[in-house]
Amino acid sequence: MAPQIETICVQGGYRPKNGEPRQLPIYQSTTWKFDTSEHMGKLFDLEEAGYFYTRLQNPTNDAVAAKIAEMEGGSAGMLTSSGQAANFFAMFNICGCGDHIVSSSEIYGGTYNLIAHTMARMGIESTFVAPNASEEEIDAAFKPNTKCVFGETIANPALSVLDIELFAKVAHKHGVPLIVDNTFPTPVNCRPIEWGADIVTHSTTKYMDGHGAGVGGCIVDSGKFDWMAHADKFPGLTTPDESYHGVVYAEKFGLGGAFITKATAQLMRDFGSIQSPQNAFLLNMGLESLHLRIAAHSQNGLGMARHLSEHPKVA
Ligand SMILES: *Cc1c(COP(=O)(O)O)cnc(C)c1O
Predict the structure, then answer these.
(1) Is the shortest distance between the CB of 181 and ligand 1 below 6 Å?
(2) Is pLDDT at 48 greater than 90 in this prediction?
(3) Which residue has the higher pLDDT, 243 or 125?
(4) What whole-number distance in Å separates Cα of residue 202 and Cα of residue 219?
(5) How many angstroms is it from 84 CA to the middle of ligand 1?
(6) What is d(CA 232, CA 196) in angstroms, rounded to the nearest whole number?
(7) Edge to edge, what strands does the sheet with 178-181 contain?
(8) pTM across the whole model
(9) From the CA of 203, how far away is ligand 1's center (Å)?
(10) Is the CB of 110 under 6 A from ligand 1?
(11) Atom 12 in ligand 1: which residue has the minimum CA distance?
């Protein structure tokens, strides 16, 4: 039986062996030490898995990303320095100049500005549709150069709920993935991958951290979207990456690993929005109580809704 979400909140991502520290260690190190430059070369060429420089990967961050991936039911995850970086990386990993994004119109203001203004300056167009749009309305937003669909499970601040199943259905009909920002419900209340989403993002700054201690973000890949089946749309994943010794991510890392490996090897390498290991440790501490806090938030919300619905001055 798969572990329950409560167990993953506490135990996921880090399983110490006999005699190892019970709490996740903070690897506060920029670099790793190697006996030979050949070993380091293999890591650099992605021929061997391992750590050498924290801008690319760090064991503390990886353990926390693995915990969130496990909570979401995904195949792989990565931490970013903020939720903004997570959403930008998730979209820019498969979109470039000349491409187009379909997005829900009710999303976080920062993400709206990112898509409508900043990514537009990079030559990426967008069309916005209401989160409760009909199948025909979503269909009509697509163009031949559309590369992904974006939405928020529960929008910040509109609190509208995305019809994930419908948006996923239309995205898949057009051969592109659905990216869902799951910041508000967290995987305790909703796991978008179970409803058809392909990639899930988070601002871990909010409920996941839970203590107002650290800004952070996370991307989780479902490992279900078949890039090779739509190879012409996603050349970045299906043709050689000249900036990384000609590696073809979808071939070398498969369904479960291609998206996150590309985002790490290319985008983290070039944009460098890594989360500090210290913040990843604090985020992990927050995640250990997420299932308890989200249950309490939900009780409070229900109590408030009941009170207001019976209040004579509230329509
Ligand atoms: C806060 C928020 C973001 C941005 O995250 P930061 O961690 O502040 O960069 C993105 N999406 C949603 C839904 C948010 O609430």
Answers:
(1) yes
(2) no
(3) 125
(4) 7
(5) 6
(6) 22
(7) 76-80, 217-221, 199-203, 178-181, 146-152, 100-104, 125-129
(8) 0.97
(9) 4
(10) yes
(11) 108
